[in-house]
Amino acid sequence: MAENTLSGAPEEDFLRLDQQICFALHAASRALNGVYRSTLKELGLTYPQYLVMLVLWEHGELPVKRIGEHLRLDSGTLSPLLKRLEAAGYVERRRGTEDERSVTARVTEAGGALRGRARGVPRRIAEATGLPPDRIRALHEELATLTATLDATHLR
Asked: What is the pTM of this model?
């Protein structure tokens, strides 16, 4: 049985589900999304809609393409989200006057009011993790580094 020199564990162990970093991240993401789902329910937002609102609250009116870049979403995924947010009255989409293919989105007055109601969400999520703030920050930094490393590897 071959051993891995990094951990001393048999190579076969690396084919176990509980040894897969992708599954650990997937499971954590699903668990965190569940907490967001219940937290955001009172706001009437889904987790992806909340992310769109975060981008718009932070950056103001943006082309849909830029929102997608911030969220790492393609227009096929983003357009229905914006459509639902617009139907709820939180977002307004506008076609460009010079280029009708260009669409921007901005927060409406109701969407601005929603921001005030959403202020407690990050605190509630942080509490749900059971981690102290410094550990949450460190985990966030580790995940950002991992993402950047994987993006660089993927682009090679």
From this structure: 0.86
